[in-house]
Structures are given as C-alpha cells and as structure tokens.
Design brief:
The protein is of the alpha/beta class and 291 residues long. 41% of the residues lie in helices and 15% in strands. It has one domain: Aldolase class I (TIM Barrel, Alpha-Beta Barrel), CATH 3.20.20.70. The protein contains eleven helices and ten strands. Strands 6-7-8-9-10 form a five-stranded mixed beta sheet. This is Radical SAM protein. Residues 11-240 form the Radical SAM core domain.
Length: 291
C-alpha cells in the first residue's frame, strides 16, 4: 500500500479499509492545525488501482473504504469519479465510501456532483466544522461561516449523504467559550450530523497559533472553561445525534445519544467541573504529544 506520512482517520473508521488518494490539505491555513506537513498532491490513478488490487487480496470483504488525506473529496470530479468507480469495481462488497471533506469543498460541487457521489456509495463524510461561532471561524481562517455549514449540510441531506462533525472546544479562546458553544448549538440544530466528535484544542509548537499565543494575539481557554463549553453545547443541542468526547485531546470522556442521554452526560460533566483541578487538567494537556 502507498501511504505518505501520518495517516489520520476518525476513531469510528477503525474498521475501514484505508485507501490513499491525496496527501496533504488544499486549504492548509487553519491557524491551530499542524497535522498536514506535506504539500497537497494527488495519487496517480495507477497507484490507487495497485492499492485496490492489494486490498482485493488482503481485505476482499471490506464493506467500507476510507479515502485518506485532509480533503480527498475536494479534488475535481474528473479525478474523483474514476477513483470511486474503481473502488466499487475492485471491492464489490463495499457499502459506503467516506473521508474528510471541507465545507469549502462542498461549495464548489454541484447538486449533480453530490447526486453522483450518493449513487457511487459516498456516505458518512467527516467534516471538521470545528465551531458554529463566526468570530472563531474567522480568526482561525477556517474558510467557512456558520451559515455555510447549514447551507452545505442541507445539500448533503438532500442528496442522501450522511455526515459527522468534529467540534473543537477552546477554539474561541479565554472568556468566549460559552458564547461559542451557544452559537454552535444554534448552528448545529439546523443540521443532521450522525455524530459530533468533540476534540479539545491542543497547542502544538509548529502551528501558527503557537506564535499567536506567544505574541499576545490569542489567549488559550482554561481546561475548566472548556468543560463548561462542552456542557453548554450539550445543553443547547436539540437534534438527535451521538456525541462523544472520547478523543485523546479531551480531559474528560463522556459519550451518548442525544437527546436521550443528555441528563447523564450533563451530570458527568458537572461532576468533573466541580471536582477536577485546573492544574491537573493542564498537566494532562501538556502530556498530549500528538492527536
């Protein structure tokens, strides 16, 4: 198999067959991100087909394929469609094909493109929306607004393509986390994510945000403030979705189905907020070396 650098995939894709089609990120401007060091490139179709032949031998009964890279669904349809067709031909048992996609990628796709994706089995796309709080999205240079999230997710809904969200607690900075959670809940309530995976922003020295902190342009939120942010988000969500804070970046791990498990999740967060020591949580954060 052809893999370049570190391969990132969500925890819920652990059982998926991984197929490299792109390396790096086309956007590569988010201030907090240092995951994708390699410049963006597209794998040759011949290389993709060689990897599919290998999957035929060693993973012939794969039911889901995860396309690797920061946003493989952002490439042109003339490149993407043959890849999706090749997957379906090589692995006939595959029920769905997923990967990361940016809101900006979706904005450049037509409704006909999305309909073709659905026909070829694209489903369960993961979107790093990070927040529904426009000031945070703007400062971090995410490249989309809260309104964009709603608009593009409704297009996915219309096409019959499911999706998952990543939410980044602490992204708003010190003193603004509750505000960000409230805005995000309002935004997300207009969408239908199957899963909301919460990550807690961790500052790595090779990110642009590290320099922002050093030069006083950004003040990181404390750990207890982040927990209160997650609590506010859970309290404000009115949609049916599975919420999880089980990532290595999260200091407190809770998960459950909303709205059914809301009371249990809120109680667990309240216990943590009332009993956890800020310094102990900060020590945990400092020990996180990689996402």
């Amino acid at each position: 198999m052809h893999f370049t650098g570190t391969i990132w995939r969500p925890p819920y894709e652990a059982g998926s067959a991984l197929l490299q089609v792109t390396v790096g990120c086309t956007h590569h401007r988010c201030r907090f991100c240092s995951l994708y060091q390699d410049p963006f490139s597209l794998s040759p179709l011949s290389e993709v087909k060689a990897d599919l032949a290998e999957l035929q031998r060693f993973h012939p009964h794969a039911q889901r394929v995860w396309l690797t890279g920061a946003n493989p669904f952002g490439i042109s349809e003339t490149k993407l469609t043959p890849i999706l067709q090749s997957v379906r031909k090589a692995l006939p048992n595959v029920r769905s094909i997923g990967g990361f996609v940016r809101i900006g990628d979706l904005q450049r796709k037509t409704d006909a493109d999305l309909a073709r994706w659905a026909e070829l089995g694209v489903d369960g796309l993961t979107i790093g929306v990070e927040s529904g709080h426009d000031p945070s999205l703007g400062f971090m240079e995410k490249g989309h607004t809260a309104a964009d999230i709603v608009q593009q997710c409704r297009r996915l809904d219309a096409a019959g393509i499911g999706y998952y969200f990543f939410y980044l607690s602490g992204m708003a900075g010190a003193g603004r986390c509750i505000e960000a959670a409230q805005a995000s809940a309002e935004t997300f309530n207009q969408t239908k994510p199957r899963i909301i995976g919460v990550l807690s922003m961790t500052l790595f020295p090779d990110s642009r945000l590290a320099l922002d902190v050093k030069q006083g342009r950004f003040a990181p939120a404390g750990e207890l403030e982040r927990l209160k942010e997650v609590r506010e988000l859970v309290a404000g969500l009115k949609i049916e979705t599975f919420l999880s804070t089980a990532h290595v970046s999260d200091t407190v791990h809770v998960e459950g189905m909303l709205p059914n498990d809301r009371s249990r999740i809120l109680s667990a967060l309240d216990r943590a907020i009332n009993s956890c020591d800020e310094r102990a949580l900060e020590n945990y954060r400092r020990r996180v070396r990689s996402l």
